[in-house]
Amino acid sequence: MRASLIQIAVDEDEPVDARRRRVAALVREQSGSDLVVLPELWTTGAFAFERFADHAEPLQGPTYEVMAKAASEAGVWLHAGSIPERDGQGTLYNTSLVFSPDGDLAAAYRKIHRFGFDKGEAVLMGAGDTPVTLALPDTTLGLATCYDLRFPELFRALVDAGAQTLVVPAGWPERRRAHWTLLARARAVEDQAFVLACGTAGTHAGVPQAGHSIVVDPWGEVLAEAGHDEEVLTVDFDPGRVATTREQFPALKDRVLGLDRPRR
């Protein structure tokens, strides 16, 4: 299976419509991939809190339309990162969209853990409450977003729901880049799953971004890692290694806390 992570540079001087067109062109260029992944809140910048309300859109808004068409034209599964979604009651959410190769919306995930410590996203946006998985022909995706990466219980829930490949779009700051790579590898090891973590480049509202999108295998080995600037990180991986790893080292069977089944 081939995955391409597009580490978009967010330039605050670039109009949002122009960025949508530019990113759609990048998606179309990945027509040889099976899965394409974009970062979190790439239309606005994850730290551009003051822009969330102005750039919020309905689920089937302009980003939906452009990305659905790009997925169809490229013939790929497209995790289109996340957008600031405004629902029918006016509540904002940090919502991820995944499209099928036909351009249909296959899944949507509202970010559960909001960052900000009673500021920023944590007060401006509502929280999702449902873990989301999506079955692809060769693997089952588990969806998470940025700050979610710090909460292993979400990833356990995704694995319990069948996830084999954990996809994490993010707008992660440079000053905590060491945590980004550490946590991506930790989630891969403890859940014996692939982790595809796609970050942004550039600067969001004065906050330099970490970049360094990363693909980690079920043993915690880094298969590929991007640099600091905008780039496309493409990697081939074998989804069957998840089952093999879990059979060779069946640690998940020894879980006790949080399980309904009795101890052995």
UniProtKB/TrEMBL annotation:
Any one GO molecular-function label of the UniProt entry: hydrolase activity
Organism: Streptomyces mexicanus
Keyword Hydrolase carried by entry: yes
Protein family membership: Belongs to the carbon-nitrogen hydrolase superfamily. NIT1/NIT2 family.
Alphabetically ordered keywords of this record: Hydrolase
Lineage start: Bacteria, Bacillati, Actinomycetota, Actinomycetes, Kitasatosporales
Domain of life: Bacteria
Domain CN hydrolase as annotated: residue spans: 1-239
The protein, known as: Carbon-nitrogen family hydrolase
PANTHER family referenced in this protein's UniProt entry, alphabetically: DEAMINATED GLUTATHIONE AMIDASE, NITRILASE-RELATED
Coiled-coil zones: none
Entry-linked InterPro entries: C-N_Hydrolase, C-N_Hydrolase_sf, UPF0012_CS
